[in-house]
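Risk register update: the risk that structure generation would not scale has been downgraded. Supporting records follow, first protein first.
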Amino acid sequence: MQDPGSIEHMKMRTIGLTLAFCFLGAAACFAADPQMGTWHLNEAKSKITPGTLKNTQVVYSSMLGQVKIKSDGIGADGKPIHVEWSGKFDGKDYPVSGDPNSDTKVNERTLTTANKKNGKVTVTGQIVVSADGKSRTLILNGTTPKGKKFKNVAVYDKQ
């Protein structure tokens, strides 16, 4: 018969190891997604149409299958802007706040994007992370609220 104290010690050790593996697994999942993290606009490598939104910092985070994107930058009117989006990369519409040019975004695992305003697509784009994971390029094609067509290429460096 085993000492009750040693059984209790084994239970605690098993629980501790299980928690450690859970945290390591969560960290590995987070690290495995190249989009996650903080990205700063590299203006020297970017070509942004004047009079369109310019995000200078974008932060991707993930928790329990939900993705949250926060971006700060300069709006078409030259004033600071803060945009937030939460959802899943599952192709469904999720609300976005702070962007005057869209009210929903459709995102998929391929990280293509379609911004919508009043149910109509106003901007389409693609987000590509470099092979080394140190930069990403966002290519957007769309129409401003004033009807002007644009194409923006924004390059971000991971911080």
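Supporting record for the second protein:
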Amino acid sequence: MRRWLPILALVAIALGGAVKAFAHHSTGYYSKEQKDFVRIQGKVVRWEYRSPHSQLYVETTDKDGKVVVWRFESTPAAWLLREGFTKDSLSVGDQVTVEGFPIPGQLFAWLGKVTKQDGTRLLPQRSTATPDWWNP
């Protein structure tokens, strides 16, 4: 039994690391309920085209007229590139309509679609955060 202890310890460490890595990429906290779906219009204030997750920040007004900034998370830059997104697809100041799947009660959502003022649609690749009912 003693000679198996080092092997069991290594397996436990490896599994613990795998769980942490998987948890980092979990999308379970984004709502997939249609009632929570968001569609906002606003101005791009920041566009981070990067890995492991690209981020889009959009300034808009809330129901009380207060200026707020929504953050939309998406897939890595390489995945977005396959769908036609580039680092130049969005610029600070662009007027956009953004649709996504939020964390309820927060100004943070998974990116579903961006429609630019000229009608250009940017659709990221589906992920585990994309609800089955979503059909842009």
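The two ends are 57 Å apart (CA to CA). On this basis the risk owner (M.S.) recommends closing the item.
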